[in-house]
Known about the structure:
This protein has five helices and three strands; from the N terminus they run βββααααα. It is of the alpha+beta class. Strand 1 and strand 2 (9-15) form a beta hairpin. The longest helix has 15 residues, at 41-55.
Amino acid sequence: MVWLKKDGEKLLWREGEDLINGERFFAMEQLCYSDAITQSVNRRAIAVFDYLQKAHPDMQEDEIARLMGYTLPAIERIRSAELAQDDGFEDEEEESGAAGGYDFS
Length: 105
């Protein structure tokens, strides 16, 4: 395997005949990948949004999204993507009333 590294971080590598963009892969991994130990940025964004929504019930959803540096359409896309990827995500939300099993009540 051939790696191109900068400051110890893998930037590019070959997977067979294909050249893999490591910077893009690792950025998407941080945004999207969750397991029993690690929560993705997207999942944490939904948890923060839900927390702020409960903490500030007088605020509109688009205001809450802006408060945390997002847009409401981005939050909605992330929530849809999370629901589509995680079998237990939807059930946990229905049971606890919070995304990803987080309950901030």
